Amino acid sequence: MRKIYLLSSVLFFFASLCAQKNLVNTTPKFSVNLETNITPISSINSTTQYCYQGQLGIEYRLIKNIQVGIFGQTLLYTGNTEIANIDNKIIELSSIEYNTLGITIGYKAKINRIIIYPKIDIGYNLFLAKSLDFPTDKKDFLDYRYLSITPKLNLGYSISEHTTLGINLGYNRQILVFKGQKLEEFNPNSMIGGVFCNIGIK
Amino acid sequence: MSRSLFCIFMVFQISRIIVLVFITVFSKLSSQNIILNGDFENNVKNYILPTGHRNDTVYTLDSFVFNWNSLFGYPRYENLKLNHYNLKLAFNSIDSLSLAFKNNSYSFLITQFTTKDTFNYIPDYFHDDTGKYANFYYFNCFTSASTSGFFQLLNSPLIKDSNYVLSYRFKNGSKKLNIYNQHFWSNLMNNFGVLFTTKNVSKDYSKFKTDPNYYRQYKIDYYKDYLQDTILDTNYKWNLKRIDFKADSNYRFLNFGIFRDLRTISKKITHEPTYHYVSIGSSTTYFFEFAFMIDDVRLLPKWQYLDVTTDVYACEGDSIELKVISGAGGYQWAKTNHPTNILSTQNTIKIKLADTNITYQVMSPYDTALIPIYVSKSITIFDTIPYKSCENKPLKISTPNIYQWYDNTKDTTKTFTQTGSYWYETKEQCNFRRTQLNIQINSTQYDTLRQSSCDSFTYKNTNYKNSGTYTFQYISSQNCDSFHTLNLTISPSKTTILHQFSCTPYFWVDSIYSKTGTYIKKLKTVNQCDSILTLNLSIGLNDKIKLENGINYTALQDSVSYQWYRCNPWRKITNETKPTFTTTTKGSYAVILDNGKGCRDTSDCIALYSSGFATTIEPITRIYPNPFNSNLTIELDKSYKEISIKIYDLTGRQILNTQYKNLATCDLKLETLSKGSYYLQIETETNTQFFNILKE
Fold it and tell me: What are the chain A neighbours of B566 within 8 Å (beta carbons)?
């Protein structure tokens, strides 16, 4: 699922690049934002797993340079095949799923073709992990919920009137636990970095 | 007429001559009667007056009689000086009352009333123990008779406002005038005293007789010292009476005497052993025994008067010092029996006494004083006192009256630490008491017991747990403190506990131990005390795990590292490295123990929600040999249709997976397997078992 999601994001990215020639020279109100990041996850025994994270969002230029939007995000957990005891459940770490739905708000400044776009992502995180006994006991899994906030700085270059490519850098922080507990075995609080593509729609 | 007148004149003249002749003859006869004891006069005559005083002629009674009237001629006396040295008079006749005067000497009116018979009968009155006529009994009385009176005209009148001393001494043994008073004057009759006046009193004695304040009326200094009021101290031979006075006028007369109104005495008085009958005058008869002796009467200006050491009573061998306390000098000290041998010219003289009485005199230009010294002979009394004491209690002997110790010291307290004979002397009056001290100082006894023991030692009902020196004090047979010392050495028994872990059989002392357990060896220390060695030996790790409440796993081995595994499939639970772990995820779990020193062990797998210890499950399968080298035999309790055998390494990696069918015994060939620990999983159609195997 995650692989499909990433693949579609990349395809979408290249499609956007191909389509820029047709963009008009006006700034659209709506745009689609694609981001992919490398997210270090602090794991068991203080080891760090570098996981991949993809985000797809729709943004709306509210007034002038103020952008708001919503997004969906998923994490490709690349952790090892170890098992761990979490909340008295023997969890297969490779079964961890970490998805996010959220809103974003930012300020997009444009200097010539340079886009400076600081923004904040506020996400509702869903953590799912299956125990070893999950095949026989479907209730034996972890379902935790968090609220995270991720300030980011996107630096882009407008390759066309509607398409911007760039890099981003931010810091992901879980700030609330709605359900479950904070996990030492899966700690996403870390700096993240990646690339993004913004494509104007209308 | 003229013839008649001439005849009458002649008759008178003749009568006068006759009378005079008669008187003369009578007087001669009387004087002849007085001198009955020639020795007396001779002694008086031969008496030597002290230096500084006029050595006048000692008058005999004849002289007294002859010079009687000179008293009333008021001769001028240089001074008044009377003592028993320079004037010794005795009268054995009533007539002597009229004779006892001397007009040109140290004169004093002295009257002695006695009779001829009495004089002879009681000669002791005139003899003292030295054989001299020292005991005189003077009596002066004022009577109606004209023969008395003892006032003197001083050659050197007393100077107004000058101080004088009149001293006189009563000889011990003097007796008061014992006159029986029949009528009045009772307040005086038994009084006996000394009166002196310094004024020419009236001869009207009748006034004195009737008025005791007579002298005062005439403003005459009046002193009296009643002998009966002043008890004579019999310890002294002489009792000095002294009157210090200031002359309130320039007196020319001194009147001194014993006064007593005898006028009313009319009854005979007896007093044994003396008895005197005296008749004075023509109309009055007096009976009395005798008065007292005035030994010394001196009247000198105070600065001339020699005040010296009083009579000395001392012991033979004593060293004493005689001294002049006051009085103008210079001085000349001498013994009275050798007055010309001057011993000292200082105001003091130190002498060491012989064993006889002696009298020293000190002479000044104005006065002479005598100091009689009465020496008591000394004797020494011996006695012996034995003493016993102990070395640590030195004998302390106190003698407050110490005179001399054997070492010539005079300590009142002396301490003795050595056995021996000693002595000390005390002096009691003039006698010495020499006390011989036979002192025995018993030594303190010491003895020591050296004792060694283990842990404790009981001695004399006391348990001692520490080494040390203990001293006991006891009383020896000689009643002295003695000391017994226990020199104790306590050596402890030694207990050593050794906790030892070994993966392999353990060699300890003299044996090899292959099983976990506690082993005790009892040895001896160098002090022959018990040395108990305890070995708490653990062979291999305790691979037991305990499951509680179905979900709580606990490894029973302490102090090792832990890693929990999920069995079937064998997978490490990454974050479970503590001795305990809890899970609700179904499955079987085991733990691998590692002491970090090359010893590792794996517990049996125990399924969740089961109970008890993993090792309480009786094995149904035997695996041997274990450890193994190449081949491993698995012997099942029965034959199973499907047998799956898997081997995992400690990381959970599967090494071997092989299947057997319808077998009860499986032989595994594991030559290629590296040395180390592994986990063997045997799964049949009925159960799954895990075993630890070790390849060497």
Answer: 83, 90, 132
